[in-house]
Design a protein that fits this description.
Blueprint (H helix, E strand, L loop, with lengths): L11 H12 L21 H13 L11 H17 L7 E5 L2 H14 L8 E5 L5 H9 L2 E5 L10 H7 L4 E7 L11 H10 L3 E5 L7 H7 L17 E5 L11 E5 L2 H4 L4 E3 L7 E3 L8 H38 L4 E3 L7 E6 L7 H10 L5 E3 L8 E5 L8 H18 L6 H9 L7 H10 L23 H9 L2 H15 L3
Helix pairs in contact: 2-10, 3-10, 4-5, 6-7, 8-10, 10-12, 11-12, 11-15
Family: Belongs to the group II decarboxylase family. Sphingosine-1-phosphate lyase subfamily.
Pfam families: Pyridoxal_deC (PF00282)
InterPro entries: GrpII_AminoAcid_Decarb, PyrdxlP-dep_de-COase, PyrdxlP-dep_Trfase, PyrdxlP-dep_Trfase_major, PyrdxlP-dep_Trfase_small
Length: about 500
């Protein structure tokens, strides 16, 4: 302890040891065994490089680029790299954000502000679009008009999109690729629809923007067509650097074809006695740490390095896809264009997909359950990264073993009383007592019953198949409400 420090202060090494102990309970962030949330290049030196760069600039504040010109230079370098990679013409501009959701929010905000003459603005999106756009609609008072996608390919339907565009539309959106199924929407056709109506067109390439251009150069199987700012009619595009650019979280880039299109998401206020607030993003204070870490990683890996990483991730995804489709009872939804897979049941094979997820977790592999929506059945999401190259057989073997165990266990059944309760619950009037009853019926000890200790942390089950089956049976609105309430239980000291 430092002489003169507070008596309750904890020593540096003790704090770090406690942190390491806490981290042992997390899903692994390296090695390719967590197939959602994290992106692993397999390049061991990137962690140290990013950490050192983050430490060097973590105390700098992007709130004022004139006070911290290093941050301005690094942001312009990263935006310039994104413009060159993603088909931007001279005059294209961009902004660094905290992640893909903020980039999507700002794209919607800029489109709304660019059409202040529209009293009831709306955006037209495929039903597979990332939920960030619905969040934008919620926050900014913009109606979200969802258009059903092709029920087999899961790609956006240009004709249906054209029919949905009207005088209130301020933005059309397409995905490259969609998160849920890993397929690229027909961007040129969607952009043509938007252009004909004088409407902006945004491409959500948050997850694919730093890998698809390299796959296109390679002419990969089913290689992606044009999707970026080079497509006539595309006015903005988002790409996350903390995904396939393998940078530390959280850094994303929102590109606009010209400065006028970007202006709407800037905010300025001089109507108070302090400094004039001027923000290009939703944040005011912005740590220089994530920016510097991303700048260092992108410079270190380089264009050729990213081409090799993209090739490795795509090859791994193809081999894993082939291995999984050879497992009796499983299929891959759609025809994925890049590095994301959605694995569903093939027919009625007599086992439960959520049990497969539990069995994979027991074997050290973490996948993300996705619930039924329109023509998309329940499935397991797999994000394949470069580190999975060379270890495809290990994952496929684990899937095969998990399916065998799930088949032996049989399908998960939902208690009749619980199913009946879910059927009558109204998400808009759900009470705390009803919520507690649902969780209790699902086998969760929430610590919210009579006489319970309100400070006791909720105990999560080791296996989630029963919980996921319950959530799959709920309507989307009820599922939203149940999970929001559940999140509130998790976040209590």
């Amino acid at each position: 302890m430092i002489p003169g420090a507070n008596p309750d202060a904890t020593g540096v090494e003790e704090v770090l040891a406690e942190l390491a102990l806490l981290r042992r309970g997390d899903a692994p962030t390296h090695g390719g065994r967590t197939l959602a949330y994290v992106y692993d290049s397999g390049l061991a030196e990137l962690d140290e490089l990013a950490a050192r760069a983050h430490a060097a600039a973590g105390s700098a504040n992007g709130l004022d680029p004139t006070a911290f010109p290093s941050l301005l230079r690094m942001e312009n370098d990263l935006v310039g790299a994104a413009i060159r990679l993603l088909g931007g013409e001279p005059g294209a501009v961009g902004t660094l954000t905290s992640g893909g959701t903020e980039s999507c929010l700002l794209a919607v905000l800029a489109a709304r502000e660019g059409r202040r003459d529209v009293a009831d603005p709306s955006i037209v999106v495929p039903s597979t679009v990332h939920a960030a756009f619905r969040k934008a609609g919620h926050l900014f008072g913009v109606r979200v008009v969802g258009v059903p996608v092709d029920p087999t390919t899961f790609r956006a339907d240009p004709a249906a999109t054209a029919a949905a565009v009207d005088d209130t539309t301020v933005l059309v959106v397409g995905s490259a690729p969609s998160y849920a199924h890993g397929v690229i929407d027909p961007i040129p056709e969607l952009a043509a629809v938007a252009g004909e109506r004088g409407v902006r067109m945004h491409v959500d390439a948050c997850i694919g923007g730093w890998v698809l251009p390299y796959l296109r150069r390679d002419g990969a199987r089913g290689g992606p067509g044009a999707f970026d700012l080079s497509v006539p009619g595309v006015t903005s595009l988002s790409v996350d650097l903390h995904k396939y650019a393998y940078c530390a979280k959280g850094v994303s880039v929102l590109l606009h074809a010209d400065p006028e299109l970007r202006r709407g998401h800037y905010f300025a206020s001089a109507d108070w006695p302090g400094y004039t607030m001027l923000n290009p993003t939703l944040q005011s204070t912005r740590s220089g740490g994530p920016l510097a870490a991303a700048w260092a990683v992108v410079r270190h890996v380089g264009d050729d390095g990213y081409a090799r990483l993209a090739r490795s991730a795509r090859t791994a995804a193809e081999r894993i896809r082939d291995g999984i489709t050879a497992v009796d009872g499983l299929r891959v939804l759609g025809d994925p264009d890049a590095t994301l897979l959605a694995v569903a049941l093939d027919g009625e094979p007599g086992f439960d997909l959520f049990t497969v997820a539990d069995e994979l977790a027991a074997r050290g592999w973490h996948v993300q359950p996705q619930f039924p929506h329109e023509s998309s059945p329940a499935n397991l999401h797999l994000t394949i990264t470069a580190v999975n190259r060379g270890h495809e057989d290990a994952l496929v073997t684990a899937v095969r073993e998990a399916v065998a165990a799930a088949r032996a266990a049989g399908p998960v059944t939902l208690d009749a009383d619980l199913r009946a309760l879910i059927g009558v619950l109204d998400p808009d009037t759900l009470t705390a007592r009803q919520f507690a009853d649902v969780l209790a019926a699902a086998g969760l000890d929430t610590g919210t019953g009579d006489g319970a200790d309100p400070g006791r942390p909720i105990r999560l089950p080791d296996r989630m198949a029963g919980i996921n089956t319950m959530l799959a049976a709920a309507s989307p609105r009820l599922r939203e409400r149940l999970l929001a309430e559940f999140l509130g239980l998790l976040y209590r000291p």
